[in-house]
Amino acid sequence: MPRRVERLMERWATSGEALGGRYSWCPDGLIVRDAGISNMVGILAGLVDNGEFTQVLNRLDD
After folding, report:
1. Would the CA dihedral through 30, 31, 35, 38 be positive or negative?
2. Domain range for 44
3. How far apart are CA 35 and CA 62, in angstroms?
């Protein structure tokens, strides 16, 4: 993970942003701090709960 993203995630861990620094996103990518299906499910559920799911993940046209 690039150091710049790592620093942001560390800052968000204390501020509570991005589910406590568990993820970072940009228009074409989602970076998660910890690997694993259960972690991804938790992040996706958190995005839905916070109303951010469609902001972070965009539907692609066929």
Report:
1. negative
2. 3-56
3. 28
Domains held by the chain: number: 1
Q: Which tokens hold the place of 31?
A: 């970076």
Counted residue by residue, the chain has a size of 62
* Distant-in-sequence, close-in-space partners of 1: CB < 8 Å, separation ≥ 6: 9, 31
Q: Does residue 12 sit within a domain?
A: yes
pTM tops 0.85: no
How far apart, in whole angstroms, are the C-alpha atoms of residue 59 and residue 6? 27
pLDDT tens track for 12-62: 999 999 999 999 998 888 999 999 999 999 999 999 999 999 999 988 887
Considering the domain boundaries, does residue 41 fall inside one? yes
- Domain assignment present for residue 31? The answer is yes
